[in-house]
Write a structure and sequence with these properties.
The chain is an alpha+beta fold. 37% of the residues lie in helices and 23% in strands. Helix 2 (27-37) crosses helix 3. The longest helix is centred in the N-terminal third of the chain and has 16 residues, at 2-17.
Amino acid sequence: MKKRLFLLTSLLVLLTSCGTRAPHYDYRELAQAALRLDMDIDLKDNHRLYIESAQWIGVPYRTGGTSKRGVDCSGLTSNIYRAVYHKHLERSSDRQRTENCRKVRKGKLEEGDLVFFHNGRDKRRATHVGIYLKDGHFIHASTSQGVIVSQLDEPYYKRCWMQGGRVK
């Protein structure tokens, strides 16, 4: 018994003295985010991205808006990027595409990449932007529904797809 106690104590001292710590997860907050986003959040996912994104769900759309009282698509991506990645993004969809990102093919999208869409008329200019989450889902500010999660394979987003962008 003393030998086991000594081994357990020694192991505990070794683990705490080398400075390694298990990451701290707030599982209640993650569970709430998963429910609000209507998606599973895995251990390997960027928890800060999902928690921050979930806090924006349901915020109404407001042209030029940058707050939780009302936000447009580039305001949403700017706010989430500042909170999660501590990066500044331009305040228009097309400038985020041309000045903040390098192009990424749809099949190579990763969590946190930006997704850009045109309006169906001018196919050379991004008029809408969202943040790719995973499994074809992205968060964005819809003009009709406010901040929501949509899927890239929905007919409108398939037709108006422009490109993915990885922030530099």
